[in-house]
Write a structure and sequence with these properties.
With about 290 residues, the chain is of the alpha/beta class. It contains twelve helices and eight strands.
């Protein structure tokens, strides 16, 4: 079993945590987590990839074991998180890498690709959205309302997303056999989510999510111009990003490989073997040389 290292690096004065495994001279893949989790979501996937790839999984600022400066001390935005991630990758000497994007990891990954298209060797999107079709309106209506008019009234529903029950809901919704999902997942995430001041960090990012859909036309153009190899592996029961978000990739990338699997938002918890198998096959066939 490959060894996984747990490390820190300081970028622009902020201490960022990341998990790393694999040989330094192997092709690199960067795993970008979503809300409300961290690199913890990749704890079982990393060893499956590390025999053949250098695997890097950072915790975004405000998440996991990375620093979490207060929202009035740092301007939390997806631009800022992408810039810190780019700084981390530079510090590790990575200038060519594949990305695995999930939830918040997608707008961060798309920013990395738009800022340096030649750096991206392949994309794996696991419920990582890039199309208007992917938004499940029942979930996103509250987010859009807050983006349009932030304030005590509109933030109430979003604070509901920061509870233990809502975190559990994200993990279990759409999963046919809930006993496959370890309760450690939502309790681990909630413990970090519930740190004093973290609610304001998350509200800032909810409010900034409105900056992501306007980037989509540029992302689609990047897909068409680059022809980047892309695997979409999607939990079809995801209550946040629906299956239409997966099938939409084929409109801009006709060679995209799209798989809708039984599962939800955090597909690795219930379908790890399926995802890892699809990834290793895809990367072996289609990863551009480093």
């Amino acid at each position: 079993m490959p060894r996984v290292h747990h490390r820190y690096v300081t970028v622009d004065g902020h201490r960022l945590f990341y998990r790393e495994a694999g040989r330094l001279d192997s092709p690199a893949i960067v795993l970008l987590h979503g809300f409300p989790t961290s690199s913890f979501m990749f704890r079982q996937l990393i060893p499956r990839l590390a025999d053949h790839y250098r695997v890097i999984a950072p915790d975004m600022l405000g998440f996991g074991f990375s620093d979490a400066p207060a929202a009035d001390e740092f301007d939390y935005s997806f631009d800022a998180l992408a810039a810190l991630t780019a700084g981390l990758l530079r510090s590790l000497g990575l200038d060519r890498y594949a990305i695995y994007v999930q939830d918040y990891g997608a707008p961060i990954g798309w920013r990395l690709a738009l800022s340096d298209p030649g750096a991206i060797t392949a994309v794996v999107s696991q419920n990582g959205n890039a199309y208007a079709e992917g938004f499940v309106e029942e979930f996103w209506a509250a987010v859009w309302a807050y983006c349009e008019r932030p304030g005590p009234e509109s933030e109430g529903p979003l604070r509901g997303f920061l509870t233990l029950e809502a975190t559990r809901w994200q993990y279990l919704t759409g999963v046919a056999d809930e006993t496959l999902v370890d309760p450690d997942t939502w309790h681990h995430d909630f413990a970090l989510l519930a740190r004093p001041g973290n609610d304001e960090i998350q509200l800032a990012l909810f409010g900034d999510y409105a900056t992501n859909p306007p980037l989509y036309p540029a992302v689609h153009s990047y897909f068409r111009q680059s022809g980047v190899p892309l695997l979409a592996v999607w939990g079809r029961g995801d209550p946040i990003f629906g299956p239409a978000g997966a099938t939409a990739f084929s409109g801009d990338l006709p060679d995209a490989e799209v798989h809708l699997l039984d599962g939800g938002h955090f597909l690795l918890e219930s379908a790890l073997d399926d995802v890892a198998g699809l990834m290793t096959d895809f990367l072996a066939r289609r990863l551009a040389p480093s």
